[in-house]
Every structure is written in C-alpha cells, then in structure tokens.
Amino acid sequence: MHTLLDLKNVSKRYSQDTLALSNVNFSVNEGEFVSIIGPSGAGKSTLLRCINRMIDATGGEIIFDNEDILNYKKRNLRQLRTKIGMIFQHYNLVNRLSVIENVLHGRLGHKSTLAGVLGLYNEAEKRQAIQLLGMLGLEEQVYKRCDQLSGGQKQRVGIARALIQNPKLLLCDEPIASLDPNASKIIMDYLQSVSKTMGITVIVNLHQVDVALSYSDRIIGVSKGEIVYNGSPKEITTTQINNIYGSEAGDLMLDLGGRNAG
Ligand code: ADP
Fold first, then answer.
1. d(CA 64, CA 179)
2. Ligand 1 centre and the CA of 205: distance in Å?
3. What's the rounded mean pLDDT across residues 10-23?
4. CA 106, CA 139: separation in Å to the nearest integer?
5. Taking 50 as the threshold, does the pLDDT of residue 262 lie above it?
C-alpha cells in the first residue's frame, strides 16, 4: 500500500517550557482513516497544524506525497495546502455569506489573488459546489446564509469546502466536539464515506474514544506530546487507553463497555 504521509522524529517546541511534540514517528497509507486520541493538551491539534504547515515543526521530517514539506516556501506551500483540506471544531465559515460562497472559498488556493478577490468562479466550480452540497444532504441550503444553519449543517459546509479543493488528505480537528450525538454521527458517517468512496485519506483528532474506536482503521494515542499507541482499534486494551489518558481515564470507562483489561 502507498504511504501518503510519513512523520520522522517530529518535534514542536513553543517555548522553553512547552515541548508540545517530542520525536513523533508514524506513517499513514493512502485511503486510511486514522483517529488521533488523547487528553486535552496532549498535542493533537499541534500535530495536525504541523502537517499542513499552519505552524512549523521545530525538528524532524514530514514527508507528504513523497516530498519533505518542512522546507516548502511560498509557491510549494500554496500547492501543498490545496492538497490538504482542513475541518475545524468551530467550522470557520463566513457566517454572513451564503453556503455556496463558503464552499467556493475552498477554491481560493487554486486561483490568482485577483480572481479570488473578485470572486471569480467558473461554471465547473459552481457545479462541483452544488454537487458536493447535494452529496452532503444540503441541496435545500445552497443559497441560505450560513448563520441560519445548525451546527451539524455548518460542519457539512466545512466538509464541502474542504472537498472542493480536491484534496488528497483531510485533516479534521475535533470535528464533532461542538455537536450533539445525532449530528456527530451524521458527520462521522460522512467522513467515513469520504474516505471509503472517494479514497481520500482522513486524519481526525477526537476526544470521544468510543467514536474513534468504531470509525477508524487505526488509532494513534498521544500523551504529553508522545505517541503511546499506534495500532488497530480492535486490539487496544483498557490498560492502553488508561495509559493514553492518564488521570482523565476514570471519566472514560463508561465508553468502553465490555472491553477487557489487557
Ligand atoms: P490538544 O490538541 O491535544 O488539546 P494542543 O496541541 O492544543 O493539544 O497543545 C499541546 C501543548 O502545547 C499544550 O501544552 C498547549 O498549552 C501548548 N500550546 C498549544 N498551542 C500553543 C501556542 N500557540 N503557543 C504556546 N503553547 C501552545
């Protein structure tokens, strides 16, 4: 299977006192659905932001699509960002604009600044936006303002905006943390279908262990900036989950149902 992403000894230091990532090593195959789990402050969000170069890792190598992206500048960086879609906990939409305008913003990375500023989108782009919104069950909402949508609908607009980039990789930073269980299930089902039917690689930061275990091909557990588990969701044991969550683990036991201590 083809490796899409390979992290080698990646570290991120914010300050003298804050080493957010320490010698992180893992790789992700094309088409894989990977969940990153761990307590607050473990470094999950830092990890995703290093992968799309929103922030710069302090050390190590990040190989994406066969190239070391840590040294990318301007033009290469712009191209890289078109290949990596991002979904956020708080959706990051422009609320006063319509749904379709927000989706079309996903095309900006492919355009000149002037075309972007003038809002020049071609017919093919508009058709693709409408097709994606249909696929995500938002055909009735295409021309509504985003501030009229529910949280779950907003997150589906976020997914459409990421997909219209035609990305190879989708990074999702706590995509369901602000949603109720019903809306969360809908979003996770769509993310799974994006991975399985479109072949797009998905990496999701999740706080909910039960959700991570039921949707993922692989689980990566992060604790205090280090990878402490990297393997199948089927084989993870209660002990390993306790190891990932440390003192927060007590709150999670209910989620684990009948799993045996390993
Ligand atoms: P998680 O996503 O798992 O909650 P984060 O990646 O947000 O963890 O944070 C990891 C560590 O880095 C924490 O100690 C956090 O306080 C610190 N941190 C995160 N962002 C910054 C920043 N911009 N400046 C300084 N420290 C930060």
1. 31
2. 14
3. 97
4. 18
5. no
Decide whether any atom of ligand 1 lies within 6 Å of the 239 Cβ: no
Specify the range with the lowest mean pLDDT, choosing from 82-96, 135-149, 191-205, 242-256: 242-256
Among 16, 18, 47, name the best residue to mutate to test ligand 1's pocket (greatest count of ligand atoms within 8 A of Cβ): 18
Find the helix packing angle between 151-163 and 123-135, rounded to 10°: 140
Q: What is the pLDDT of residue 49?
A: 97
User: What Cα–Cα distance (Å) separates residue 124 from each residue in 51, 65, 81, 102, 140?
Assistant: 30, 26, 21, 16, 20
How many angstroms does the Cα of residue 187 sit away from the middle of ligand 1?
A: 25
| Residue 102 CB less than 6 A away from ligand 1 | no
Neighbours of 147 (CB within 10 A): 11
Distances from the Cα of 35 to the Cαs of 23, 201, 217, in angstroms?
A: 19, 11, 8
Nearest CA to ligand 1 atom 16: 41
Residues 9, 61 contacting (CB under 8 angstroms) = yes
108 SS3 class: helix
**Structure-block tokens of residue 128:** 């693709």
* CA 178–ligand 1 middle distance (angstroms): 19
Helical spans, DSSP H, in 24-98: 44-51, 74-83
> pLDDT tens for residues 114-172?
777 777 899 999 999 999 999 999 999 999 999 999 999 999 999 999 999 999 999 99
